[in-house]
Design a protein that fits this description.
CATH architecture of one domain: 2-Layer Sandwich
Shape: globular
Number of strands: 15
Mean pLDDT: 93
CATH class of one domain: Alpha Beta
Order of helices and strands: HEEEHEEHEEHEHHEEHEHHEEEEH
CATH topology of one domain: Pseudouridine synthase
Distance between the termini: 24 Å
CATH superfamily of one domain: TruD, insertion domain
Strand content: 15-25%
Low-confidence stretches: none
Radius of gyration: 21 Å
Helix content: 25-40%
Length: about 350
Amino acid sequence: MSEPFRPDDWPRATEAEFGSPRAGEFRATPEDFVVEEILGFAPEGQGEHLWLWIEKRGLTTLEAVRHLARACGVPVRAVGYSGMKDRIAVTRQWLSVHLPGQQAPDDLAEQLAGCGVRVLEQVRHPRKLKRGVHRANRFSLRISGEATSDDLEARWAWLCRHGVPNLFGPQRFGPGGRNLARARAVLARGWRKRDDREGMLLSAARSYLFNELVTMRLTDGNWQRLVPGDVAILDGTASQFTVETPDAELDARADRLDLHPSGVLWGVGASLAAGEAMHYERAIVERNTELCQGLERAGVKMARRPLRMRLDQPRLAIEENMARLDFRLPRGSFATAVLRELIEHPTLTLPAEG
């Protein structure tokens, strides 16, 4: 068995058609990277939890959570959020805070504004906002540099037609891949909640293993089509089924981006994959036995994730030395995975662990 891919070796889907992209810049200012959470349902207007639709700039989601908890005089665990949003960005998302039988402070909006959080709406709901309940994220990004004057339009059209490898972005692994290095150490000695209260190290390990699987499928040229034993996931849903042998109808649906092959998010449980698809999963275990065993000991449940993501409502506008990209992605998918197909930038390629 060959050695695992280094994170800086993860290939691009567009390289075979266009070669490596030209240099580009993004996130020169937070306003160049705008993200809006799409919840998919409306709070009910009554209940013990106050939900806030916020806009933050220059803050992580967890920093915004701590500011809200402090302003309301509650523990951090009383605050809920669905997705983690970037720090160097302008992001809009929902937060919730448990305030049974009490009103929020009269100056809550003013307190949060002083911390870089703008309250756009407040509404009550019976339940806490849970992780991963939002449907999608809408992105509006500006990029500049050489890449905008090269073949950007052609690359963009290719991604709209064929989809984008659903890689976890480099931010998942921390600066210089340090989250992944820490995950290896923690899993080797036995994961404990107190070492990883938000579960970010477990997430970094699972994300790395998934990216390894995507990389193998990219290298073999079958990341966007079904192979025998694949578990197909219907686009935009959690519905999945095992494909014993792909047929013409399923191939056509995959070609239309109606469904996607999937890969395993490692943990405890039995995989639904079989045949050729199971070969890739076994290769992941052989390449990364300690990580896989550590995740199993930690009790993480096995799950699945599409190998590919479809750009929803995509728009591209190119001006002189500047381009604006607008698109929606399913929750859990990374805009940086889209950008790395379009531009070369140091922060889009995760340095090897060091």
